[in-house]
Design goal:
Blueprint (H helix, E strand, L loop, with lengths): L3 E2 L3 E2 L28 H16 L55 H7 L8 E2 L15 E3 L5 H4 L7 E8 L3 E9 L3 H17 L2 E5 L5 E6 L3 E2 L6 E10 L5 E10 L2 E9 L8 H5 L2 H17 L3
Antiparallel strand pairs: 1-2, 3-5, 4-7, 5-6, 6-12, 7-8, 8-10, 9-10, 10-11, 11-12
């Protein structure tokens, strides 16, 4: 068959046998020692090398172990993180319920006032102390206009329980008044009504049975920046013909209680620098909040 070599198979070039060096055809069966390997030989060698590299199955070679997949996988499942227990938050200030026995814990101490109010630092005295001030206006007292009465009394009718105290010296007077309602829901409703009254009553007069009058002129209420629902105002009060004096007023809600307070600079000249005598409204309201939170934490 044309192009076939009996010793080596097909010719690479497909032609006849190469002539000898003297020009004559080489006899059949003559070895061709100088002829290079054909491409098929190189390809076969490369294929064997690739098999050896890819599948090293020689003696001592490790046998690959199949890895199971899906539900039968032997790989360990990732561990879920163990939740950390949240610290106890203690009693909620929104839902706490106080009574006549726990109410006094909301009242400021002498140390509270002396530490927070600049003019009280030299010392203050109780006047009157806890348990000696009745709720509401004094007999014969009235507020004009009458729609502003709850701006003074906090609630329109007698509360479930009530207490008040005052701390004072020649420069400052700090008064506190606490009313308890039947439950936190009732207190929230009363606090909402109180805020509405305070917003619309920018000027009103408080009269006593003897005919004395104190005129209140209030600045817009601002919300407290602490943990409790609270409003704070700057107020100017003037009794009779006396000079006006600077006063701060605040109301805070905790559970079934509304805690109200005033801080008054007794020297009329302090109107221009009330913060030097009373501190800021934020500092006074923080004093109230710290006392309230301490009382809540102490509840059984």
């Amino acid at each position: 068959m044309p192009g076939t070599d009996p010793q080596h198979g097909p010719r690479a070039d497909g032609g006849a046998s190469a002539p000898a060096e003297d020009g004559r055809p080489a006899p059949a069966g003559t070895p061709r020692s100088r002829r290079p390997w054909g491409p098929w030989v190189l390809a076969a060698v490369l294929a064997v090398a690739v098999l050896v590299l890819v599948q090293p199955w020689g003696a001592g070679a490790p046998v690959p172990t199949p890895i199971a997949t899906g539900s039968a996988s032997s790989a360990p499942a990732p561990q879920e993180p163990t939740p950390t227990a949240a610290p106890s938050a203690g009693p909620s200030t929104a839902d706490v319920v106080l009574d006549a026995t726990t109410l006094p814990g909301l009242l400021l101490t002498r140390a509270d006032v002396e530490a927070a109010v600049p003019a009280a630092e030299p010392g203050v005295s109780a006047g009157p102390p806890s348990g000696q001030t009745p709720w509401g206006l004094p007999p014969g007292g009235a507020v004009e206009p009458a729609t502003c009465t709850t701006a003074v009394t906090v609630v329109p009718g007698p509360p479930v329980a009530h207490d008040a105290l005052a701390w004072a010296n020649e420069e400052v007077r700090v008064e506190q008044d606490v009313v308890l309602l039947a439950d936190p829901a009732a207190a929230r409703e009363a606090f909402r009504a109180l805020v509405t009254t305070v917003d619309v009553c920018t000027e009103y007069t408080v009269a006593d049975a003897a005919g004395g009058q104190t005129r209140w002129v209030t600045q817009p209420a601002i919300e407290g920046q602490g943990l409790l629902p609270e409003i704070v105002q700057e107020v100017t009060v003037r009794t009779g013909e006396d000079e006006p004096r600077a006063r701060y007023v605040g109301h805070a809600l905790v559970g079934n209680a509304i805690v109200s307070w005033t801080a008054t600079a007794l020297d009329p000249a302090a109107r221009e620098n009330a913060a030097d005598v009373l501190g800021t409204t934020g500092e006074v309201s923080m004093m109230i909040e710290e006392r309230v939170l301490a009382a809540v934490r102490a509840l059984p």
